[in-house]
Design a protein that fits this description.
The structure is a single chain. This protein is α+β, with helices and mostly antiparallel strands. The chain is 59% helix and 17% strand. It contains five helices and three strands. A hairpin with a 2-residue loop joins strand 2 and strand 3. The longest helix has 26 residues.
Length: 111
């Protein structure tokens, strides 16, 4: 069976999206819909909001993000996510590892 582009993307997303969420939070806290828009708009990182919220819950359980409820003028309070020092350390480790990994993959694919 030859994989479809969607099948390949699904496999690639599995180990990467959580670090992309952390990268989005690096500069400022954000609520879930903001993150979904950043990761999903003209982007292949997120397929639906339904996959984002369980991921955010896991990041919170790992102490990589914290949450704060903020009142909203247009509806219920919003839960804002903020990266923690542990989350920043995890992102730094991923970034260094990713750089080496992508170089190795590119080199292998081009040889």
């Amino acid at each position: 069976m030859i994989p479809t582009p969607d099948m390949v993307l699904t496999q690639l997303r599995k180990g990467v999206v959580e670090y992309c969420v952390l990268a989005c939070l690096r500069s400022a806290p954000a609520y879930g819909l903001e993150l979904a828009e950043r990761l999903g708009t003209d982007n292949s990182l997120l397929t639906s909001e339904g996959t984002l919220y369980p991921l955010l819950s896991r990041l919170r359980q790992q102490s990589w993000v914290t949450t704060t409820q903020v009142p909203s003028a247009v509806g219920p309070p919003r839960r804002y996510y903020e990266i923690t020092d542990e989350g920043r350390a995890a992102l730094e480790t991923f970034t260094a590892t990713w750089s080496r990994f992508t170089t190795d993959v590119r080199t292998t694919l081009e040889s």
